[in-house]
Design a protein that fits this description.
three-stranded antiparallel β-sheet; steroidogenesis; Cyt_P450_sf; CYP11_CYP27_families
Length: 508
């Protein structure tokens, strides 16, 4: 959850433009110094290696060569050529990009009590034009913090997670039955399929159930027209977000009105879904039925610690951020397990050993699957959903012996870090066990961000993926014909250019 771009929002442009020329300011404010500072003199901001020297030519080149979908490869190449820190400006967007875990730790130490992340102008513009509030994905400052503290209790705390685990488990079991039905229709008793759409349906069904306490029926034979419209709206919103990242919304409405209108219409449908769910929950309250857990939104409504429009804004952002951002890691994990059958077998043996000890409550079950959870972490190392994680340091900070002024957008290149031999041994090898040893892995697993601004849907996503793989692997053997690496593209999140075909064979 929490997909991210390499580029900064217009909202930060003022502070960025000031900091861009603020090399001397680093001498007037005591900077945060790295844990292993270089003995040589700290160099000014302008000395940081730079990718390209003309901001507008950089933007033109990106558009002409359709480089936006290859941002992760471009960033990886820039680190190889320029070193573990470089800066770049594309159009009005400026950033300093860093590679190493210790530099990510520096950003964590200097993020302050109100960590800032990159905004998405098109999302913010939709909220303003429709008079909707923003949720914590888009908020900053005290407003972000006050909402986040309330939401933490129901979304990311152990007690909150414990309550929605049965919902996720039910949907995972239903997905397995859905796959068995499809296999039974095949006389060969197996199923070879591009699973991307099915995973999209699973993650949307699971997250909606946990958030709203309602099933959408996406794993049934014929989903309703309303559910199909909702799916299409989410897909359209994600597809249109990427091209809208790099041009101000006002200009985009003039340059490509259809793209902008499609984006607005998609968000309207998503917000209407949240409205409908709120109405259904209120009807349940009015009927005076016995109190039971009915999902995250119902708990927030009952607590009455957030205004209704804030609850709706946050639930809508959770919905938008919790579908492809979970579906894609599942797809990549299934592919890696299919082409690494020895790892698949080892995880299945772990599952069998856990089941042999008798039934466990779900929270304890999740803690008994270290190899399975390590496989998810290994997938996110190689295929991070967002290719960067961003922070704006609140004070001048020294990174790689360069002074980076406060307020500068700094981005940790997650894709490049995950495949860097400076950080990981045999970085191209899929090896979940690397996470189970005694090696120091601090700030190496940042797919969900870090600190108080880490992805609030982290526990929901991790539990959803773990329970899905638990049930699928105990029911099916997964194969793939192609063992070649998957070429990936960046479409607001990292995804395969061409989804792999996977074969499911029932174990019974």
């Amino acid at each position: 959850m929490g997909a991210s771009s390499r580029l900064s929002p217009r909202a930060a442009r003022g502070s960025l433009s000031r900091s861009f020329w603020a090399g001397p300011s680093c001498r007037s404010v005591a900077p945060v110094v790295a844990a292993e500072p270089s003995p040589s003199k700290v160099l000014p901001f302008e000395a940081i290696p730079r990718s390209g020297h003309n901001a507008w030519f950089n933007l033109y080149r990106f558009w002409r060569t359709n480089s936006f979908q290859n941002l992760h490869y471009i960033m990886q190449k820039n680190f190889q050529h320029l070193g573990p820190i470089y800066r770049e400006t594309v159009g009005t967007h400026s950033s300093v990009n860093v590679l190493l875990p210790r530099d990510a730790a520096q950003l964590f130490q200097s993020e302050g009590i109100y960590p800032r992340r990159m905004g998405i102008d098109s999302w913010i513009a939709h909220r303003a034009l429709r008079n909707h509030k923003c949720g914590i994905f888009l908020l900053n400052g005290e407003e972000w913090r006050s909402d986040r503290l309330v939401l933490n209790k129901e979304v990311i705390s152990p007690a909150g997670t414990h309550k929605f685990l049965p919902f996720l488990n039910t949907v995972a079991e239903d997905f397995v039955e859905f796959m068995h039905r499809r296999v039974r229709k095949n006389t060969r008793r197996l199923l070879t399929v591009d699973l991307r759409h099915d995973l999209f349906c699973f993650t949307l069904e699971a997250s909606s159930y946990a958030l709203y306490g309602e099933r959408l029926g996406l794993l049934e034979e014929s989903p309703s027209a309303e559910s199909q419209r909702f799916i299409q709206a989410l897909e359209t919103m994600l597809q249109t977000t990427l091209p809208l990242l790099f041009i101000p919304p006002g200009l985009m409405r003039w340059v490509n009105h259809k793209l902008w209108q499609d984006h607005m219409d998609a968000w309207d449908i998503i917000f209407k879904h949240a409205d409908k769910c709120i109405q259904n929950i209120y009807q349940e309250f009015c009927l005076g039925k016995p109190r039971k857990y009915s999902g995250i939104m119902a708990e927030l409504l009952l607590q009455d610690e957030l205004p209704l429009d804030s609850i709706k804004a946050n639930m809508t952002e959770f919905t938008a951020g919790g579908v492809d951002t979970t579906a894609m890691p599942l797809l990549f994990t299934l592919f890696e397990l299919a082409r690494n059958p020895h790892i698949q077998t080892a995880i299945r043996e772990e599952i069998t050993a856990v089941e042999a000890k008798g039934p466990k409550e779900l929270s304890k079950l999740l803690n008994c699957l270290p190899l399975l959870k390590a496989a998810i972490k290994e997938t996110l190392r190689l295929y991070p959903v967002g290719i960067t994680v961003q922070r704006y340091p609140t004070q001048d900070v020294v990174i790689q012996n360069y002074c980076v002024p406060a307020g500068t957008l700094c981005q940790v290149g997650l894709y490049a870090m995950g495949r860097s031999p400076e950080v990981f041994s045999d970085p191209e090898l899929y090896s979940p066990k690397r996470w189970l040893g005694k090696e120091d892995n601090s700030f190496k697993a940042l797919a969900f961000g870090f600190g108080s601004r880490q992805c609030i849907g982290r526990r929901l996503a991790e539990a959803e993926m773990t329970l899905f793989l638990f049930h699928v692997l105990r029911n099916f053997k997964i194969d793939t014909v192609s063992k070649a690496d998957i070429k990936t593209v960046f479409g607001f999140i990292l995804m395969p250019e061409k989804p792999p075909l996977l074969t499911f064979r029932p174990l019974d």
